[in-house]
Amino acid sequence: MTAPLRVFIAIEIPDLVCDAIRAQIDLLGAVLPETLVRWTADDNLHLTLKFLGDVPPNRVDTVAKSLMQTAAKTTRFALHVGGFGSFPTPKRPRVIWAGVRPPADLVDLQEGVESALLKLGFAGEERPFVPHLTIGRVKQPVSPKDQEALSAALEKAHIGDLGIIEVDSVHLYKSDLRAGGSLYTKLASAPLKS
Length: 194
Fold this sequence. Notes:
Elements: E1 5-12, H1 15-30, E2 37-39, E3 46-55, H2 60-71, E4 77-88, E5 93-101, H3 104-119, E6 132-138, H4 144-156, E7 161-167, E8 169-178, E9 181-191
């Protein structure tokens, strides 16, 4: 039996926006202990619309076809990237993210993807959709001293406008967990309506 694939649906981030994010990561990284945050590699920056988890290989084509049908109903749109935040709170950050100002088209696309996958038997998302680009994950456990340094650095940092993403397609990716971090491979692309 073939092992399942760890799969998600996301929007790709263009190089110019990745470069702007990398510059901000470098500024934050310069004032934080090197081992405190695992920063996201440029190749792994993306905006997740839906994480599917483990999917049998024989279902991937069905998911890709459903994604293509859903994407074809949404007109191309632009996303503005800027600002930053953290989950779950600024005082106890575990995930550091760059913000996305979501237009109605993005919300419609994500809801369409969610609805289409529910019809295929995938579980619905329990949490509300909060569009963001994960730029770093805080390594656990965190000492009180490091927690304080991280919170202070995030409070002082100001990340302004990081660019615009012209969204003309969405993609189905597989994620392979490796010792040096995840490796993402594009399985299918679904163009949006012109």
